[in-house]
């Protein structure tokens, strides 16, 4: 078991057939800062069960706490678009810097709500694009609705709100859009299988279920 800092240093030097398992983020006794822990083991030991991490608290779940494919689950894809072209008179680099700050706030929002709605982050393959999993379908729907509502309330840089893609829009006096506009697609059912990602050790899911969720996000 190693910390994320050690994992980053040895990642490219591991022997073939090494299985990487994310153990989550833990508060360890005697250490002020929380630590992301990784389990490295030969793939031939992948079926062996190891003791749980003896930490004071698990702050972010790891691979073994991810929703199981032995039960129905909900897969969700959520993303925000890339930076739009700058309006006339606005420097593109300045807009991109402001937009990056807004995307960072979106990422923080997603991770805060995951803890609240008992969701699991599988991966963030691109900045602001997430693959998520939920054991409870109702919690997944509540997450999606809350994320869209909270997205309207973020403290956006004025440069971002000045673009037509992020400008505030109202319908019948009710705020419909403001700031980043997230696309969220989800599907509930059975995944074919799950396995740890080689780059992060976190759970990823395969089969028709995640494919359906990805297509719904793109509608």
Describe the structure in your own words.
By secondary structure, the protein is α+β, with helices and mostly antiparallel strands. The protein folds into 2 domains: 2-62, no CATH class; 73-217, Nucleotide cyclase, GGDEF domain (Alpha-Beta Plaits, 2-Layer Sandwich). Helix content is 28%, strand content 31%. The protein is built from 5 helices and 12 strands. The chain has helices at 4-10, 92-116, 137-151, 158-161, 208-217, and strands at 2-3, 18-27, 35-42, 57-60, 73-79, 119-126, 129-134, 169-171, 174-177, 183-189, 193-196, 203-206. The strands form 4 sheets. It has a 4-stranded antiparallel sheet with strand order 1-3-2-4. Strand 11 and strand 12 form a beta hairpin. Helix 2 runs antiparallel to helix 3. It starts with a strand and ends with a helix. The mean pLDDT is 94.
Please state the overall shape, judged from the principal axes of the Cα atoms: globular
Tell me the span between the first and last alpha carbons: 42 Å
Rg: 20 Å
**H/E series:** EHEEEEHEEHHEEEEEH
Q: Summarize the biggest pleated sheet.
A: 4 strands, antiparallel
Q: So, CATH architecture of the largest domain?
A: 2-Layer Sandwich
Q: Provide the number of structural domains.
A: 2
Our count of helices gives 5
Beta fraction of the residues?
Answer: 25-35%
Key terms for this structure?
globular; 219 residues; 12 strands; Alpha-Beta Plaits; 5 helices; four-stranded antiparallel beta sheet; 2 domains; alpha+beta
